[in-house]
Amino acid sequence: MANIAAGLDAALARRREAGARASTTPRTLVAGEGWQVADVLCTHGPNDVPFEERHSRMLVALVVAGAFEYRTPSARALMTPGAVMLGNDGECFECGHRHREGDRCIAFRYTPAYFERIAADVGVTPRGARFGAARIAPSRAFAPFVAGACAGISMQRARGWDALAAALAAHALRHTAGLSPRDTRGASSAAIERVMQILQLIDAAPESELGLDRLAEHAGLSPYHFLRTFEQATGTTPHQYVVRARLRLAAQRLADAPGKIVDIALDCGFEDVSNFNRAFRAEFGESPRAYRARLTG
Fold first, then answer.
1. How confident is the model at residue 126 (pLDDT cuts 50, 70, 90)?
2. Are residues 76 and 169 in the same domain?
3. Which of 34, 111, 131, 222 is the most buried (most CB within 10 A)?
4. How far apart are CA 78 and CA 233, in angstroms?
5. At CA 96, angle to CA 92 and CA 98, rounded to 5?
6. What sign results for the dihedral spanned by CA atoms 286, 83, 155, 239?
């Protein structure tokens, strides 16, 4: 994820240097019959006024850097790296950056007809081919999709996106089939701002010592209050978020760098290679060695 986040940082730096207006810039990576994948860089920040937009297709977007607030008519959700942003064709939405500047997403868009075919294939009724939730919180179930999409961008791969697009849509449909529109309405603006500060701290250096006590102290909250606030806002615990951030960083380095696996594990914050191997396999479904061989072989 290092060069993915660096791409966002570079875009934000260019905006500051040029004094330019904020923008949301989608770069189409690949498209097929009924689907499209775009790399979307957003440079909006706290001083930019959110504005209402409308989804032109069904959307399943993987958040790969930055954080922002996403609002639909039925839900509000805090989007963080590893989260999945969901949108329905024709639905109005708003993205806000009240507490943090910029984000980067890999957006998979589908025509309603294509999406309904996938829904039928996975046994979801036509009515269920629309999302009732705004977000899928960062989870092990979607980690391979995030890592695969990031690797596709960093390695400039032109193949394999069609299978990834279809599998991601099917996985999102299965996951949300009975999902209620849980959101972050219970989290106050002040709480979200504190969580955003912690997310920025973790994302900047996930390999650092990031125990609960240190994070809670940085947020100015008791450990219990911080734990509850963080999970309410992000849908995951601080520990799970840190581990996944480290695993995403390790996956990127396995694809980009020739170093030894043990060195990558230690550099990314894991105490020993055996623990890293177990966590990596659990998250991505294969060993670090097999993952590297598949991407670079």
1. low
2. yes
3. 131
4. 6
5. 155
6. negative
Give the burial string for 76-113 (b: 16+ CB within 10 Å, else e). bbbbbbbbbbbbbbebebebbbebbbbbbbbbbbbbbe
- Cα–Cα distance list, 239 to 145, 243, 279 (Å): 21, 6, 13
Residues 86/60, Cβ–Cβ less than 8 Å? yes
Q: Partners of 27 in the beta sheet? A: 39
Residue 69 is encoded by which pair of tokens? 């607030």
Question: Of 176, 210, 236, which closes a domain?
Answer: 176
* Domain carrying residue 163: 2-176
- Give CA separation, 178 vs 144, 181, 229, in Å: 22, 10, 25
Per-residue b/e over 211-236, b at no fewer than 16 CB within 10 Å?
Answer: ebeebbeebebebeebbebbbbbbbb
CA neighbor of 150 nearest in space, from 295, 273, 297: 295
- Which residues, at least 6 apart from 248, have a Cβ–Cβ distance to it below 8 Å? 1, 81, 82, 143, 146, 147, 150, 206
Q: Using one digit for the tens of pLDDT, what is the confidence trace for 148-177?
A: 898 888 777 777 899 899 999 999 998 887
Distance of CA 292 to the CA centre of its chain: 21
Within-domain flag for 278: yes
Residue 1 has what pLDDT?
Answer: 56
Total domains, the chain: 2
Q: Distance between CA 28 and CA 111 in Å, rounded?
A: 16
